[in-house]
Amino acid sequence: MLQVSEDILKRNNLTVDTIDWFIPHQANLRIIEAVGDRLKLGSEKIFVNLDEYGNTSAASIPLGIGDACAQGRIRPGSRVLLSAFGGGFTWGAALLEF
Q1: Are 21 and 81 in contact (CB under 8 A)?
Q2: For residue range 16-72, what is the model confidence (pLDDT) as tens digits?
Q3: Residues near 89 by Cβ (< 8 Å), separated by ≥ 6?
Q4: Which of 13, 63, 78, 95 lies at a CB distance of 3.0 to 4.6 Å from 20, suitable for a disulfide?
Q5: In this structure, what DSSP letter does residue 51 have?
Q6: pTM of this prediction?
Q7: Whole-angstrom Cα distance, residue 45 to residue 20?
Q8: Is 69 helix (H, G, I), strand (E, B) or coil?
């Protein structure tokens, strides 16, 4: 998750300072915190709802986006970095601007 997040930021000439929110795959809080630390993102920019739903697998990022929007955290113009991993050796990241 770390490498793919760094790669997508670099490909788009962005830095973590230009990201409003990081919504990672909600599998494990230690993983989320480790990726956030290594990206040098403050916890105030990392959206976590793992405590509310648990690991919802492939639905975790869409749920995170929906919750962040419903809570007014994501607003028009917000830049959001998404990063996930899956079964086997799969991973990916996306950048969204609302």
Answers
A1: yes
A2: 999 999 999 999 999 999 999 999 999 999 999 999 999 998 899 999 999 999 999
A3: none
A4: 78
A5: H
A6: 0.94
A7: 6
A8: helix
